[in-house]
Amino acid sequence: MEDDRRQEEPNERYRCGWEGCQQQLASQQQLVVHVTSQHVQLASSTYRCLWRGCSRRRQGFNARYKMFVHIRTHTKERPHVCPDCGKGFSRQENLKIHKRSHTGEKPYACTFEGCDRAYSNSSDRFKHTRTHYVDRPYSCRHPGCSKSYTDPSSLRKHMKANGHGRPSSPAATPPPGGRPEKLSRGSTKLSEGQWGD
Question: CATH assignment of 10-75?
């Protein structure tokens, strides 16, 4: 068959996106090896990502391993794979947290007296703990909904799950005076005219 004899072009998704480099590689693994060996310099005091369109905008890393982990956002490498479901992660710590979804383990208990909530990761516990100490300035403005949250990401998740529009729409507005500004773990103050993350 003609299709069998045709030489396959390297996949476009394995094109190096580093500034000044247009090399196409045949596989994800070859792309990872290329970027880490050709573009991430050894013995540098600061490692900068020069991937075209990178959101870090050349902000440096102080360690080479941090740069390697970041590069995975561009190469889509997920070397840490869950043995239960096959889902891949760029960081070992994220796999460790994910495994708790299979075991049900929740080692991060709320420390507020009388609260028995527990979480599989410290970030979720921190968000929850704030509900005991902080006002909930992010309110859903959808007609008939009275839900409010301590952080904008929780409001966005609620609005998406319930079809209440986007936070930038009139259905949700920032609290009077702006968004909460983090002072320290568990306390906030309002800052002028800002909304979002």
Answer: 3.30.160.60
Separation between Cα atoms, residue 174 and residue 138, nearest integer Å: 6
Closest CA to 18 of 79, 90, 63, 75: 75
Say yes or no to pLDDT of 65 above 50. yes
pLDDT digits (tens, 9 = 90+) for 104-124: 999 999 999 999 999 998 888
User: What counts of helices (H) and strands (E) characterise the chain?
Assistant: 6, 10
| pTM assigned to the model | 0.56
Question: What does the pLDDT read at residue 176?
Answer: 47
Domain with CATH 3.30.160.60 in the chain: 10-75, 78-132
Cα separation, 110 vs 104, whole angstroms:
16
Residue 196, sorted as left (phi over 0), alpha (psi -120 to 50) or beta, turns out to be left
What's the mean pLDDT in 74-79?
A: 91
**List of residues 6+ apart from 110 with CB closer than 8 A:** 116, 117, 118, 119, 125, 128, 129, 132
CATH tag, 78-132 = 3.30.160.60
